[in-house]
Amino acid sequence: MSVDDETMWLTVSNEGRVLVSTFRKNLPKEEIVASKDEMERSAIENTCRGTERGKELLDAGGIVRQVFYDRNDQLAVTIDVDGESCRRN
To answer: How far apart are CA 55 and CA 53, in angstroms?
Structure first.
């Protein structure tokens, strides 16, 4: 599923208490890595404040993980959001 012009949402799964979403960005790895801080802020905002379900998962001790691959299917960035992430931000 297309998220935006450069991002495809590939899969969503759970690994125990971890909800994992996997994405591919049509960008070089270096560009994705360079934007990690911004991506992390967005992930925290969307998970902690954007949906009640996300907050419920985190309050129950879960983790929301976003895994990003580059245009060559190489792992670029992994972002974990947990309850502590919400309290810090």
So the answer is: 5
Domain that residue 37 falls in: 7-81
Q: Could you tell me the CATH number of the domain that includes residue 17?
A: 3.30.300.250
| Closest listed residue to residue 64, CA positions, set 24, 23, 18, 22 | 18
pLDDT of 87 reads 81
* Selected residue with higher pLDDT from 56 and 41: 41
DSSP lists the bridge partners of residue 24 as 8, 69
Cα gap 44→50, rounded to integer Å: 9
Q: Kindly state whether residue 89 falls inside one of the protein's structural domains.
A: no
DSSP state of 26: S
